[in-house]
Amino acid sequence: GKTGYIRERPMGQDSILPAPNGETELFWRQAALNIIELPYCEPCDFLVFYPAAYCPNCLNRLSSSRRLSNRGKLHSWTQVHVQALPGQRGALPIAEVVLGPHSELVVAMNMSDKLVHEAKLDIPVVVSFVKKSDTIWLPIAVTVSEHADLEGGKA
Questions:
Q1: 66-112 pLDDT, tens per residue?
Q2: 92 close to 140: Cβ distance less than 8 angstroms
Q3: Counting Cβ atoms within 10 Å, is residue 117 exposed (0-12), middle (13-18) or buried (19+)?
Q4: Angle CA(135)–CA(93)–CA(80) in degrees, nearest 5?
Q5: What burial letters (b/e) apply to 56-91, b meaning 16+ CB within 10 Å?
Q6: Model pLDDT for residues 100-117, shown as the tens digit of each residue
Q7: Residue pair 98/72 in contact by the 8 Å Cβ criterion
Q8: Fewer CB near the last or first residue (10 Å), C or N of the chain?
Q9: Checking phi first, is residue 12 left (phi over 0); if not, alpha (psi -120 to 50) or beta?
Q10: How far apart are CA 94 and CA 96, in angstroms?
């Protein structure tokens, strides 16, 4: 499959979004359901993020996947002040979140404003997903209390 990005203009702004393909379709389909499911290399016992067709360690074709808990820990964070993305206004907060039962995976993603203000190393966070198009739900790290509020609002 071919990886890439698509341009969309939500709410009158330029935006660059990932373009789903055969290698990433499962990830994006599950993201819409608020589920983290990633390719898994059985010979290496290795989770692969960003979804790919081959293991970056052993180059075996990936044929299975694993669901992960949406709960993790804040490993690190930063705010990007350079206006690097079309439509970006102000600082772009990025979190590195540790996921997996043995803390084997660190994933970078956007973070909520509340998490920016409460950020401390190793605090519990939840990975939620924000709808950006019909096929793309982007991961965002939120506080545990924000997640509870979001879940409460769905009922």
A1: 999 999 999 999 998 887 777 777 888 999 999 876 677 899 999 99
A2: no
A3: exposed
A4: 110
A5: eeeeeebeebeebebebebbebeeeeeeeeeebeee
A6: 766 778 999 999 999 999
A7: yes
A8: C
A9: left
A10: 7
